[in-house]
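The material for today's practical consists of a large collection of protein records. An example says more than a description, so a record of this kind follows:
***
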Amino acid sequence: MNRLFPFIVLLVLSACGDRIETISESRQATGVKVGEVSDTSAIVWMRVTEKAERRRDGIERRGRVQPLDPELKPRDLEGSAPGARGQVRLRYGTSEDLSDVVETDWVAVSAEHDYTHHILLTGLEPATVYHYSAETAGPEGAPLHQPLKGRFETAPPADQYGDVTFTVMTGQKYVSADHPDGYMFYDAMAALEPKFLVPTGDTVYYDSDDPRATNIDLARYHWHRMYSYPKAISFHLQVPGYWEKDDHDTFFNDGWPNQQVDVMGTFNFEEGLRVYREQLPMSEKPYRTFRWGKGLQVWFTEGRDFRSPNT
């Protein structure tokens, strides 16, 4: 992914007599994710951010958990990508130039949901590549920002066979990043041209990756810094996913509902479930299944949501 220039170029466009202010940078530092793809539907996750890229000059916290200065805020840290008020919409179609474009309505995002929004697409054609332009704007619809463009493919219908390659990953610990732009395995997976990715849990580590997520803001920061890596952004603009949670990206090692853990501060299991759904393109139910044609079906039982203290 090419680095964006650190300056902003303001353009003034004329459309139907109106002057629309546009900036040449994106305001999607945490990228776009497409998930829950079926033969006729998909969910697109978007988030508006203050800047085009993650913060690279912040205070670095990675590795074994150390005490965190209470005066420090997530925006002070390396990898932070603070959200911002604004609006989002998606333009998509089967033509790469979007000559057959379908547009969703503009929707406002707010701090309540960390400036994220999930767009449900329905009525899609099976076994079809869709191209999209994920667009954002300021709170009042201006300025317009540079969009992010990507693609995804829908599954074949359930009564037809179709060739499929997919990848699986787990244990994405922040301290293990092996490149300034993220993880080299994203390049390796992309080379396989997978139809989709299945992250099977521990996508982030709230409890054992520094800084420990002792409140909901720090929990969100774990997602921001992980998915603002350029390699992750580039990959997910081309490959959709089906995410499944485990213990460390829900709350705490081998955690369970209503568990109280002193070292986790005010953060709790229920907030962990909320943040997980907020930060990823998810269906309503945690347990779900998807067919990829006649020959493949994947199941997500999501036992972590219902684990008891005795198991």
Summary: The first helix runs from residue 185 to 191. Helices lie at 185-191, 216-227, 230-236, 269-279.
